[in-house]
Recover the amino acids of this structure.
């Protein structure tokens, strides 16, 4: 190749690269102008900074939710947006009218897109009901629905009581030792114990010995912490794989086991068939097991922890619930299946707890096509957050929303005028939580047993601070003092 030819090749290469860069820049400018055009029609959260966008308004997730609450209290929007630096807007719906549009749609969750919250937990949970979409989700949802039938849930009350016995004794022991007890760590172990027993028939003395590592940091895989993430995910997956394989082998050797004992979720998963007679693959079963373990214990632990906080903070409600529970149980210690519908005040109380301290503060959807929300057409390719916590504290939906009022959920207060999308602690639409009855039953048993045995008080000087993460946590834990009532000992 002559020098002239080489020079020509270089010139063509440089020109092609320059043309490509210019083309990309033109597309970016056009896209940015579209962002600016439609975002101007949506309320902006605070002042815009030319470099940081909206990020200068808060330094952590707790501050972000505080800024949002101030915005909603003052302007009462149904939708708002922030700018991620100066690059692109992030949109959030915060009212039943706007949340309904997304929750009733078939739009998927933000799994494969940078910044999508669900994308972060995909390596752990896989394509279970929480993260899958389309035909796969429809098929698996249909196959797994029988696992949450009342006939399947009824025997679990015995498990709830067995787990609660250990839970209450642990609380009593450490309260006597220290004068108070931080309950959230014990609640988390108890709900994990419940899920392992109910989903896998696995009794690993979790509450006595602590739990296997199920948590990991949001990190890149190439870092040392990223390698730790892979290690922990592999641990969880191997743990599930071993139990699944053992169960398959046992049922293959003796299919009549299904008629001899209480069915658990794993029995349903292993034996489920779709309309074509095909079952779930081993990978699909593992994804559903991991999803059950996460959704069934972490979210319920959050709800129970904040319910304990609320019992201690509002002694008048605590006393009212105690009287109801004691009236139902009389001299019995354990809760039976037929008792649960009689806990009317407790049920109202739990619902108000999940409104005040939203168990899952935020969910999101990915637009595969343009969608009109509150009169604004939002183009495809956008992630839209649904702030359940903002809906729960929107003054147009819940007047005096910062006051704790379980009577909001009394039969007299629930009218036909209340929008069904105004209260969605378990999401709504076709993708509502399949295990909500399981979770509510567990909460009622644990809390009924707790209040029947102990009087609860907050610890003076301790800070109770919400941290809206994947679930609602308390930054410094939830400490309470317990006094034995001598009714449940």
């Amino acid at each position: 190749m002559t020098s002239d030819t080489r020079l020509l090749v270089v010139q063509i290469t440089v020109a092609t690269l320059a043309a490509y860069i210019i083309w990309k820049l033109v597309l970016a400018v056009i896209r940015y102008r579209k962002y600016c055009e439609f975002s101007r029609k949506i309320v902006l959260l605070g002042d815009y900074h030319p470099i940081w966008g909206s990020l200068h308004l808060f330094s952590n997730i707790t501050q972000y939710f505080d800024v949002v609450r101030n915005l909603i209290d003052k302007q009462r929007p149904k939708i708002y947006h922030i700018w991620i630096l100066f690059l692109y807007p992030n949109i959030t719906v915060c009212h039943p009218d706007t949340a309904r549009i997304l929750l009733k749609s078939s739009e998927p969750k933000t799994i494969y897109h940078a910044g999508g919250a669900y994308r972060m937990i995909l390596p752990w949970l896989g394509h279970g009901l929480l993260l899958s979409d389309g035909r796969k989700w429809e098929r698996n949802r249909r196959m797994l629905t029988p696992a949450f039938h009342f006939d399947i849930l009824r025997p679990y009350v015995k498990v709830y009581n067995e787990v609660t016995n250990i839970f209450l004794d642990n609380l009593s022991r450490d309260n006597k030792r220290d004068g108070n007890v931080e309950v959230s760590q014990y609640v988390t172990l108890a709900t994990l114990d419940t899920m392992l027993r109910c989903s896998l028939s696995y009794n690993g003395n979790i509450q006595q010995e602590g739990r296997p590592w199920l948590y990991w940091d949001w990190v890149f895989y190439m870092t040392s912490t990223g390698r730790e993430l892979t290690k922990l995910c592999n641990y969880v997956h191997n743990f599930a794989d071993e139990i699944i394989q053992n169960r398959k082998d046992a049922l293959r050797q003796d299919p009549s086991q299904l008629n001899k004992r209480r069915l658990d979720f794993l029995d349903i998963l292993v034996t489920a068939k779709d309309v074509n007679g095909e079952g779930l693959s081993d990978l699909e079963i593992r994804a559903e097991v991991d999803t059950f373990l996460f959704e069934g214990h972490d979210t319920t632990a959050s709800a129970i922890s904040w319910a304990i906080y609320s019992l201690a903070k509002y002694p008048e409600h605590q006393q009212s619930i105690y009287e109801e529970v004691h009236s139902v149980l009389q001299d019995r210690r354990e809760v039976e299946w037929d008792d649960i519908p009689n806990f009317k005040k407790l049920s109202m109380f739990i619902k108000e707890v999940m409104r005040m301290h939203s168990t899952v503060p935020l969910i999101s959807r990915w637009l595969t096509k343009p969608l009109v929300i509150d009169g604004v057409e939002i183009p495809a390719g956008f992630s839209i957050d649904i702030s359940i916590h903002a809906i729960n504290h929107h003054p147009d939906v819940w007047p005096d929303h910062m006051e704790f009022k379980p009577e909001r959920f009394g039969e007299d207060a629930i009218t036909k005028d209340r929008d069904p999308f105004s209260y969605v602690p378990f999401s709504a639409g076709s993708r509502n939580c399949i295990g909500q009855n399981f979770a509510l039953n567990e909460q009622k048993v644990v809390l009924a047993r707790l209040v029947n045995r102990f009087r609860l008080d907050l610890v003076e000087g301790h800070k109770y601070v919400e941290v809206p993460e994947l679930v609602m946590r308390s930054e410094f834990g939830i400490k309470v003092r317990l006094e034995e009532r001598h009714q449940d000992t």
Summary: The radius of gyration is 26 Å.
